[in-house]
Each structure stands twice: as structure tokens, then as C-alpha cells.
Amino acid sequence: MKHVIASVSLIALSACNWDSYPEAGGTLDRGNFGYATINNQQIQSGEKDYVIGLANRFATEVNSTVNFAFDSAQLDEQARAILRQQAQWIRQFPEVRFRVYGHTDSVGSDQYNYNLGKRRANAAVRFLTSQGIDRSRLEAVVSRGKTQPLIVSQGRERKNRRTVTEVTGFVKRHPSIMDGKYAEIVYREYVNSATAPTGLTGIAGSDFETSE
User: Fold this and answer.
1) Strand 65-67 to 96-103 pairing
2) Closest by alpha carbon to 84, among 38, 130, 47, 48?
3) Helix residue ranges, H only, 26-174
4) CA nearest 36: which of 26, 21, 48, 54?
5) How many degrees, rounded to 5, is the angle at CA 131 between CA 119 and CA 150?
6) Whole-prediction pTM
């Protein structure tokens, strides 16, 4: 009887697929380990909210989108004018990082359009760096190819042939944000406007005393 039980046990063990039982914790990390912690840190420090605020300002105050001719990564004069505006805005915030996304219309293969989107993003980045923007602040050049059209169309839709520049975060270890004063960066002009004008040295009653 003991021999029968032992044989049955061996058969059951041999039937197990040990590949379906990975080491403990092996399935926990899907490549996103630490993301939640980083996100929590950004929210607790206020960085997350201020990045969103800056991103909204950038999209409101300048044109974040550049368009291209069909099957081209060449910047026309309108595109260069928009990128000059972007560069002027970016120069005001040396503590901020940006990302440039390249897009195409639906004509052509996925791989061709991916490469074309990359060329367009690189063209925009090269022009921004020619305007004095440090390449290290342009965090990444990303191609979306034809996967994110503004207008769903199988044809040559100009609005889909574009690059988009976006705020993505703050420059790590930048001297002006070591103390976490994100709000002063986002609202710099408002902070400056609250500073007493030059020549005002004190207050007497309700009137300013001006120096000679």
C-alpha cells in the first residue's frame, strides 16, 4: 500500500508545471516599480501640481503645435515663427524641462510614419537649441507616428502632421528649486510684481516715502 501511495505522489509531482510557480514576488514588478513612490513624492512636495500649472500656462500662452507639409520634416517659416515663440517662453523658465512629440497623418506604413514623426520632433528640437535652449532641458524626443491623430482621416490631413511641445517637469538639482519653491517659479512674474518698485524705501502712514 505504501508503494502505491508513493507512486501516486510521484506521478502527481511530475504532472506539475513548475514554470507556473515562479519565485515569490516575481510577478510583482511589471517594470513600474517605484512609480507610485515618485508620484506620491511629487504630490506631497507640490511639484506635481505646479508642473500641471506650468503645462497649462505654456499651452495657453504660446502655440505648442507646429505643422508640416506632406511627407516632410522641413520647418516652414510659420513653423519657425511658432518655435521662436516657444523658445522665448522656455527661456523664461530655466528650471523647467520639456518634451517634443512627433506625429504624422495616416498615409504610409506604421514604421515609416514612426520614423517620420521622429524626424519631425528632431527638427523642432534642433531649431529650439539654435534659439539658445539647452538640449539637456528637452527631456526626450518621442514619435507617436500616426497613432494619435487630431482628426480621424485616412487621407493627407495637415493638422495631424505636427510636433507638440509640452512641459514635463523641473530640472533636477537646479539651484533655484533645491528648496522646493515651485510656486515662485510658476508665478514668478506675480512674485516680482509684488516687490516694491525701485526708489521706494519706506512707508510713512499710508504714503510711501520716496528717496531722492
Assistant:
1) unpaired
2) 130
3) 35-45, 47-61, 77-91, 110-130
4) 48
5) 45
6) 0.62
At the topology level, CATH places domain 46-190 in 60s Ribosomal Protein L30; Chain: A; (3.30.1330)
Instruction: Write down the domain spans for the chain.
Output: 46-190
- Contact yes or no for 81/87 (Cβ under 8 A): no
Query: pLDDT digit of tens for each residue in the chain (212 aa)?
Result: 555 555 555 555 555 554 455 545 444 444 444 444 444 444 444 456 677 878 888 888 999 999 999 999 999 999 999 999 999 999 988 878 899 999 999 999 999 999 999 999 999 999 999 999 999 889 778 999 999 898 888 889 999 999 999 998 876 655 455 455 555 556 566 556 555 555 544 434 444 333 33
**If you search the block for the grid coordinates 501516486, which residue do you land on?**
8
168 burial type by CB count under 10 A (0-12 exposed, 13-18 middle, 19+ buried): middle
Radius of gyration in angstroms for the set of CA atoms belonging to the chain, rounded to a whole number: 28
Q: Beta-carbon neighbour count of residue 94 at 10 Å?
A: 14
Distance CA 127, CA 125 (A): 5
Half-sphere exposure of 165 (CA within 13 A, CB side): 33
DSSP secondary structure code for residue 25 in this structure = T
